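Subject: Sanity check before I submit

Could someone independently write out the structure tokens for this chain? I want to compare against mine line by line before I put it in a report. The sequence has 197 residues.
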Amino acid sequence: MNARTRSRWDAHSSRCGSDSDPRQAAFTLVELLVAVAIGLLILTLAVPVLREIKRPSITQATKDFLDACSHARSKAIMEGVPTQLVIREAGAELSVELAPEGIVGATNGVSSESYSSITSPEGRAPSFLRRIDDPDVAFESINVNGRSFMQAPATAVRFFPNGTADHFDAVLSWQRREGRRLTIEAMTGLAEASSVQ
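---
Independent answer below. Compare away.
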């Protein structure tokens, strides 16, 4: 740099408030690529979380169903007595209660009409109770041991001390746009949920 160019540069630098070389003031291509990669990583992690925030009702209802099934199965095995998951009001209420003996009449061995109150037949409160307060979340189908219980005021799914259960298959939907298939495997008594398009 000759003296004249240097003096112009010094005058420009003093006006801009910088004494550094202009090449050091800019970002390099590598720095830009790293910044873009970090931004894409954050976006990738945030999108699934934002989707769940947008529709928490069906996610919470599915979690409540799986928790209720796990609780009913564990209670039956640990206490050595049959328990049941009772679905009332088309899925607006889930409860786990002791399964009453001798009430027969439905294909699944338990009369759904017998469970219209919130307490079990022995007068004890259920050990697990959840309410789904979103009217946009509802069951589209409920089948226990191959029989539809959509029109029943309550549906009972029994869990037995040996770890087995009634076979259960249902579809839970949110605004009839997004659905979850809920199943309980009869031989293992384990519940699963999968997406339905």
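---
OP: Matches mine. For the report I'm noting this point. The helical segments are 3-16, 22-25, 29-54, 56-79.
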